[in-house]
Specification:
The complex is a heterodimer.
Chain A (H helix, E strand, L loop, with lengths): L10 E4 L4 E2 L13 H7 L1 E8 L4 E7 L3 H13 L3 E12 L5 H10 L26 E8 L1 E2 L9 E2 L2 E3 L3 E4 L4 H4 L11 E4 L5 E11 L10 E14 L5 H10 L5 E5 L5 E5 L21 E16 L5 H28 L1
Antiparallel strand pairs in A: 1-2, 1-16, 3-4, 4-16, 5-12, 6-10, 6-12, 7-8, 9-11, 13-16, 14-15
Chain B lengths: L14 E3 L10 E7 L3 H12 L4 E7 L7 E8 L5 H32 L3
Antiparallel strand pairs in B: 1-2, 2-4, 3-4
């Protein structure tokens, strides 16, 4: 029985040595019906975990250019706060000043960038209460006078919990704890006599400028896989076939005459390893495909803003760009 | 939460036109975008190709060292390329707004449903 798929143009096929039908039908003259599209475009949330910091959602029916734009915007155009200027007054530790300063920049901060203004270039490092967040880090390592405890040193490991927030102006009323997301991020290691004393200034920036400003640990999408069984596979071959895929994707189903048949349970979790092509006899038993318009997004925030808020912020950036250019076109055409 | 701009302020002209094209009339243009890349380019190209009066739409980044994007539009006679571009932005804006609304209602639905 051949299964004729009416939406075959919507799927790309993973063959042994190639992937076919990957291109979208985007050439002039081939345009979709805008009225039909409205019902076919769907967004579904699958999972929200870790207090909103991890999000898995599906975009169905959308063009890959829009899905990719969302992904790119999440990585590089949604702003965050991060330490930019480091004034080092004392650093007798082993770690060089510049390496230490670099590490401070990479520490994720909980501060909400929407509450801050952009800092203008060329202004002094101290900044104002509207655009800068100030921290201080002062640690000195000593010998531990308490000989009985196992630790011979005091403060030999410098963690993010040693960072102290110095509120400017009315910041103490407006912000609650804008410090690092985690308290136990190791910054430096010291020995008795080493001292660190520095002032840190955090500003608003975007991932395009420096990756430290990216609000996501990462954001990625994959296409929804599909597995079609071309011919029934039984018993020993079925067990091998099931093992070819990620656990949970295929399972063995008992048939009436006591044999076991391989069946597709849920192709969503398949990692598309194409392991099935390593078996000569099972190669033709399945067709591996992916749905070209079904994007499974994973967005993991670094901790400043929840992932459920990051996606609308990313789309807002795109909307802002559109508005900017529409206004620019209108003003240029008036000239 | 103040309605702050998400993008850093930029004082120079972001959109201009490649000078060589004016002799071919209004329906062929190459637009030069500063500080733009695939994020906007590919979306615009998609929106342009959905417009039945657009004959050709393509974008490129001439050199990776410069953050400059060229968008080439060729349209039917009588329909200026600039109008096609403006329409593409309007369509993209409507499309993104719809996406944002769908996302937000999906989040609400997920959070209000039990378990």
């Amino acid at each position: 029985m051949t299964e004729f798929s009416f939406s075959s143009k919507n799927k790309l096929t993973l063959k042994e040595f190639e992937i076919v039908n990957t291109s979208n039908y985007d050439f002039s003259g081939h345009f979709a019906d805008p009225h039909k599209q409205e019902n076919e475009l769907k967004v579904e949330i699958v999972k929200i975990e870790d207090d909103g910091m991890f999000l898995e959602f599906d975009m169905i029916g959308y063009d890959p250019s829009v899905a990719n734009a969302v992904r790119r915007l999440l990585l590089s155009d949604v702003p965050t706060m991060a330490i930019e200027k480091v004034h080092i007054y004392q650093n007798t530790s082993i770690m060089q000043d510049e390496v230490l300063a670099h590490r401070m920049g990479l520490i994720p901060l909980k501060a909400d960038p929407r509450l801050f203004k952009w800092k203008e270039e060329g202004t002094e490092d101290e900044g104002t209460e509207d655009d800068t967040l100030q921290f201080s880090l002062q640690v000195r390592c000593k010998h531990n006078p308490d000989k009985s405890s196992g630790d011979p040193y005091l403060d030999n490991k410098v963690f993010t919990k040693h960072l102290k927030w110095i509120p400017k102006g009315s910041q103490k009323d407006k912000l609650i704890n804008p410090g690092p997301v985690e308290d136990d991020i190791l910054i430096n290691k010291l020995r008795p006599g080493h001292e660190m004393d520095m002032k840190l200034f955090a500003v608003k920036g975007v991932g395009r400028d420096h990756a430290k400003f990216s609000p996501v640990a990462t954001a990625f999408y994959r296409l929804h896989p599909e597995i079609r069984i071309n011919r029934d596979v039984f018993d020993e071959s079925a067990i091998r076939l099931v093992k070819c895929f990620t656990p949970g994707v295929m399972q063995l189903e008992p048939t009436e005459d006591g044999r076991k048949k391989a069946k597709v349970l849920d192709a969503r979790n398949d990692m598309c390893s194409r392991n099935v092509f390593r078996h000569e006899d099972l190669k033709d038993a399945v067709t591996l495909e992916k749905r070209k318009d079904h994007f499974i997004f994973n967005v993991e925030s670094t901790g400043a803003i929840k992932s459920t808020e990051l996606v609308p912020m990313a789309i807002d950036v795109l909307l802002e760009k559109c508005e900017l250019y529409i206004n620019e076109i209108d003003s240029q055409s008036k000239e | 939460m103040s309605a702050q701009s998400h993008t850093p302020p930029d004082n120079e002209l972001k959109l201009s036109i490649l000078a060589s094209d004016s002799q071919y009339g209004e329906s062929c243009r190459t637009f030069v975008f500063r500080k733009e890349n695939h994020t906007l380019g590919n979306c615009l190209r998609t929106m342009l190709l959905l417009n039945p009066q657009v004959r050709l739409a393509g974008y490129t980044m001439p050199h990776p060292s410069e953050e400059v994007m060229h968008l080439r539009i060729q349209t039917e006679e009588g329909y200026p390329a600039q109008s096609a571009l403006r329409q593409a932005f309007v369509d993209l804006k409507a499309h993104s707004l719809q996406l944002k609304k769908k996302f937000e209602s999906a989040v609400q639905e997920f959070q209000s449903s039990p378990s």
